[in-house]
Amino acid sequence: MKYKFEKYNYLDERDNLNKSTSIILIENEEKYGEHFSTEIKNLKFDYLNKIVVSLEQVLSGELEYYDFGYEVYSIECKKETSFVIDTYDDWKCISEITTQEIYDFIRDWRNYIIEDSSTLINNEIPNNDLDLFSDRYTFFDGLKLHNVINEYDNWLSSTDYSVWNNSYIEIQNKRIYIIKENVKVLSTFRYFDKIELEKLATKYNFKIKEEKGIYYAYSDDHSSRQFEISENEELAVIYCMEGGNMPESIFIYGVFEK
To answer: Could you tell me the superkingdom of the organism this chain comes from (predicted)?
Structure first.
């Protein structure tokens, strides 16, 4: 599979402004379907991250099967071979491609978006200061080490503050003590105004809700607790603690390398 990514400059006649976007050029694209590159270009950045991680699991044997798509096509992936399915034509298989090739393609497009701050994806503009989402990391909860892929959501090994206060996340030689290092609640109550919170929401892809005049960060799966961000010079971690009278569990929304 041969492809390249290029900048495309154009005049938007709706507002008479010169604009640019990025396009995907695939050699013999008709082999994969006439709308193939358009479908991939319409995938949101967080979804691309998820696809890259899932395909890595398929290739390593951790995951037996994974499928993804946008509207017209479904790409069904097994360890060796992936199939492009036209969902508008009775789910007909129109192409076969090695899973390694489709992984390389999606990963390269994801990385191109990160490098090109002016690329438009569903009207979302990645920032120049976009931190790279880390899908694999080690989490130490004060007693036990956990090897994590993407999000972590589980009970703490101990509810003793002196234990979980030492929790850290590590990626290669980078480490952050998430309870101790520059921790701020992601809300407008103290640390941020609404504009600053909205910028962080775009940067880290979380949502914002309003309660009694205060805006808070949340995700669909965790909306009852306040998200916090811990940062040092190398890493940023967004998480929340949950429990009754004391923290009993932790949800790690995302780890980002600066």
So the answer is: Bacteria
Amino acid type, 149:
I
Residue labelled with tokens 């909860």: 141
pTM higher than 0.70: no
Half-sphere exposure of 93 (CA within 13 A, CB side): 8
Main-chain dihedrals φ then ψ at residue 247, nearest 5 degrees = -60, 130
CA 133: distance to chain centroid? 6
Cβ neighbourhood burial of 193 (10 Å; 0-12, 13-18, 19+): exposed
Contact yes or no for 27/36 (Cβ under 8 A): no
The C-alpha angle with vertex 132 and arms to 126 and 136, in degrees rounded to 5, equals 145
Calpha distance 9→242 (Å, rounded): 48
Q: Which residues contact 136 (CB under 8 A, 6 or more apart)?
A: 53, 147, 148, 149, 171
Alpha-helix runs per DSSP H in 8-126:
36-41, 45-60, 99-115
φ, ψ at 153 (rounded to 5°): -145, 100
pLDDT in tens, 226-236: 899 999 989 99
Average pLDDT over residues 37-46: 85
The residue ranges of every structural domain in the chain are 3-115, 132-257
Smallest CA-to-CA distance from 131 within 176, 87, 90 is with 176
